[in-house]
Amino acid sequence: MRRIKPALCVILVLCMLIPFASCKKKEEEPTTTTEAPTVTTTEPVPTNINILTGEANLKEEAIGKRPFAIMVENHPDARPQWGLTTPDIVVEGLVEGGITRMMWLYSDVSDVEKIGPCRSARNNYIEVACAFDAIYAHFGGSSYAYNLINGDSSIDNIDYKNGAAKYDRDYSRGVATEHTAYTTGEWITEGISKKGYRTDIKEEYSSPFTFAKSKVTLSGGECNEVKTSFSYSYNHTFKYDSSDGLYYNYMNSNRMMDANGEQMAVKNVLILSCNVTIYGGKYAEWHLSSGTGYYITNGTYEEINWEKGDTHDMFKFTDKDGNEIEFNTGKFWIGFVPSGNTTIS
Questions:
Q1: Of 264, 221, 253, whose CA–CA distance to 87 is shortest?
Q2: Cα 156 from Cα 242, distance rounded (Å)
Q3: pTM reported for the whole predicted model
Q4: Beta pairing, strands 157-159 & 135-138
Q5: pLDDT digits over 293-306, tens only?
């Protein structure tokens, strides 16, 4: 038998071991998985937020602009008002003789077809308008209102009585002339331009409310109906409709209607209780330093505290523990109601 040389034997053994070593190496190699990196996405904040409602619905040309405030009367002969459902905020309070007047606030008034009947200024409403850096429009005014306007050059106002902007009269209802004046968004825009007023809002006024990121339900309990009284003949009831989340306004048990046939309804009812002093039996003075009140929304309510102060100071709203109130997005009715005149059920 032929003998295999020792060197050849070593080579043959190595050749036989190499495949096994190779296989073993593959088995020992760790298995690694490459995970896709976690990507955190944040939704961009809309730039067209309406600062009065928190809704993303402003036209581009209205972004960053000052609100507009206009006086509208609430005498029975003035009802139904033209444009009652159009404002972002309706402010209401006593003027004199137990009657109320309204101030309508807009982030963009340019497209509103008809507003009125327009009536005269009162100093309380001017101070509320200043809290929003709003341009204030009125048809004449009380002596107290003119004293405030004439004594403060930073109050930008449009007085229709002095021809500062275009208006017209609608005599179709057969009522006295003082209940007939109206204006439009187009005429208002022209009037502001004519006066040359600053139209960009000051930065410190750009967030008058803090709006919640999701729907707010309040801790005070259920509120399907709230009744509030300014005087014997000026009483409001707001009734909650869970199908759309709005509170519908009733005036002395009658539906509060726009001249276009729609009932006024809002997402937020804000009742600011305050002491009211009547001067000479003629003019009402709201004490706007601070007070208590109620915030009503989403079928619920909460007791609140509010502060203002000087003419150009903004409002501050907190709960009973001093925490800042977060509001639901949507329109407001704000009533400066004599203390003790509100019932919630």
A1: 264
A2: 40
A3: 0.88
A4: parallel
A5: 999 999 999 999 99
